[in-house]
Amino acid sequence: MDELLDSRLIAQISQLDLTSRKIFSGKLRGERRSKKRGESVEFADHRPYATGDDLRHIDWNIYARLDMLFMKLFLEEEDLSLHIVLDCSESSDCGEPNKFLSMQRLAMALGYIGLVNLNRVAVTTLGGALSSHNEPRASASAPSPSPPGGEGRGEGSPSSSLPLPSHSIRDLRGRRRTQDLARFICALRPEGGSDFNECAKRIAMTRRGKGVMIVLSDFFMKEGYETGLRLLVGRGYDVFAMQIMSPQEIEPDITGDLRLRDVEDFDQAEVTITAPLLKRYKQTLAAYCGELREFCARREITNLSVRTDTPIETLLLDYMRQRGLLR
Amino acid sequence: MTFATPLLAGIAAAIAIPLLILLYFLKLRRRDVEVSTTLLWKKAIQDLQANAPFQKLRNNILLLLQLLALILALLALAQPERAGKGGSGQRYIILIDRSASMTALDAGTDADRARLDEAKDQALALIDTMREPGPFDRADSGADQAMVIAFDTTAEIITQLTSDQSALRAAVESIEATDSPSRLKEAFRLAQAQRPQRFVEDEGLNTGPSFAFHLYSDGRLPDAAEALPGAQDHVAYHVVGSESSANIGITALRAERAYDEPAKLSIFVGVQSSDRQRRKVDCELAIDGRTVSVREITIPAASKPSAGDSDNRWTPGSGGVVFELDQPAGLVASVTLRTGDDPAGDVLAIDNRGWLVVPPAKQTSVAVVTDGNFFIADALAGMPLARLDLFTPAEFTAAMGEGRDAIYDVVLLDGWLPEVPEGRTLPAGRWLVLGAVPVGEHGLIDEGEGDSAQIIVWSRAHPILRGLTLDALTIVTSRTVALPEASPASVLAETQFGPAIVELPGPDFRALVVPFDIMETNWPFNASFVLFLARAIDYLDRDVAQARAASGASRQFSPGQVLTDRLPLGAEDIRVDPPGDLPEQKLVAASDGRVVFGPLKATGLYRLRWSGPAGPVDAVNDGRVSRIYAVNLLDQDESDVPAAPGIILASQEVSAAETENEASVQKYWPYLLLGVLAVLMLEWYIYNRKVAV
Q: Of the four, A43, A116, A222, B241, which is 20 to 30 A from A142 by CA?
């Protein structure tokens, strides 16, 4: 875990908390106000008594004044479900600083923040593989893939349902699960391609509850990201699309006559890198990012662009605060 | 615009251009680079990257530039040129005038170069434009060839026809000016002689390919009208020098002794000026190296050409001076013109000096052999003779026996003939025979005395009889003679019966024969008799001088001539010392004592030295005999330096202006290669700019 988060950073991010523009219902009572009326100290409303209501919540002062039974409704404080989707396709393993490492560190930091604040944290990968020698203890203790909605609460349950390799760890809660999270994230290896749309569909179908979903990816998907994001947001998640790009992607430093090979699908492109072509590339990149941003804006997805050479402290403490992911 | 080697370039183009395009498709060995995704790159190069080959070529400025460079190089290989005349394989005859006037310093842009240097530069420029053999041509087949001929009075082939430009250049550069006048005719004849003659079946003798004559001269070519280029030959005249140059030069130099007083020597100096202003120059006379007199000469300005004058030339002004000296001895005189310090006022230096070798005073010695004809002695007494001796036939026979007769230049025989061996006519010598008929192999046929006669016809043009009237001459008793068949004798006067005065040339004698006895005529009382005697003696004596000149006794030569002289028999270790820096040369005399040296290239004094017997006027120093010869330019055409804008040849008229307008062959391949270089540099620059990020 020290690889991903050093102690100084931990100290800095410990007081951060996740926010959501939406208030979601949770499964457990947590530290978060829920839309649900529940049993907390914070008063929300009154409503007329109906038969069967818990007598303990009758506002006896009202009854004394009005001779009518009203129920005192309290805001229920709930936990928040934080779902981190990590793009583990081969293409993530690029750039200097490495894109995948940046994603891992971000996922770890965000997960840690979630865990510290008693949120339910889940991590799902898009593609990728798990190193066998470094499998998280969580999966060792509960090796059987937990079916969706299964009773694996609190337990990491990597699932590798074919055909698309996808791994996940779910229902982590509390600071003590930090190690499990770290072990899982550390064990991830970028490998192969990722079918984002397919993965998004599966995530949308299998997740429980609502919450914040953070998608860490470069969003350079040949099949398109639109369908996938639409699926994710359609199920009521507050989605943050974090586009991670290396400086080499933003400002390529390659020249000459080249055969560019796509690390994922081994597609080749023969290019002669010239100044006009580089200019055009940058224009294309800007247009692509612009399209993504516009798409997200239309669907209330918060889009964040992250350069891998930006220090993670700056990201967490400044950038994400500004963008309303953290507070 | 024509191409010298279009086929070669076409073949090269057919190979090279498809090869370049093919190479272009094959050339890119792209470096493999892994990227996270090719998505953006593909989008970026969507219009750049296309699979169709020709789309690939589109917008590819590098390939276009390479193609351009290749095409330029191929064009250069085709050797494009703005054509002059004819196709490939021109034959140039480069005629370079190296005569004295080509040393005039009025050529070039600043008018301070020697004309010959300018002419050589122009000739080199012509050689540069010659078409060189193509890389795959057989030697000399498609290339231009040239021959270099330098001429003054003689013409010399410096190189034969060749396409080797370095040899031609070396040949042109090796040409040096001489002090000789120019003669163009021989140069043309020499060139014509080199023309390969071919016998073509059905056509007969073919005069071979046509020549392109390029004449580099100042146009001072007095015999240009005799130069005959071939009918198909082209003549270009490249004029060097200025048309308004001023020059002052000695054009005549002569020494003469007074007829009656041979010790009095007059030296005539003729000077010519082509300056368009009147000029005054000093003329300095030095005898044996010592200045004896300086005289000023005023020379009128050159006169404008008259309206009808075809060659439109200014006529140079001329002046002269006579130095009178009292010098009975032989001497060497030199004349120098002092023309001032301005080099533009006198562009030609070599005609400012002249030399004269003057023999000692000499007059005719005459012997009269008579039995007492006082008319003859009286008539001769008035003549300025060195010696006049009277002999009776007996005395003269005795003198001949002792060899004393050799001192007489002319012997007059009156009614008597010396005895000669059978078959001979007269002894060696000059004879004026009156009243006798020399017979024999080279003589006349005596037909005896005839009747009274009159001179009815005489040769009025002959030097002896010119202006004489013989009508009044009455011959009481004539002597009838006849000429043998095929006799070389010529009849100067005739009576009705036959020849009356006969000139009789023999193998070793010359004689004038008057066969009748003058005492039997009224001639002695006629003035024409005295004149006849004087002229006859003068004529025979001049004949001696001519014979002397013919044997090389003259000491005056012109540059370009060959020095010949006869040395006394027995002369050994003969050396000639030319003027200036020229090295001394050894000569070998022929068996009759004749030596030959030349052609003479420089003006000045030539000294011939030998060991052995000396001639009558030769100086002897430390046992070495020396004889001096003077070589002078003395050529009005050479000294009249303004360059002629045109020359008239036997078959055509050539002007320098025409030649300048005529397009010389202009070669473009060096410019094309420069273009290739420029395009390659541009391509390199663009390539680097494209790659630079």
A: A116
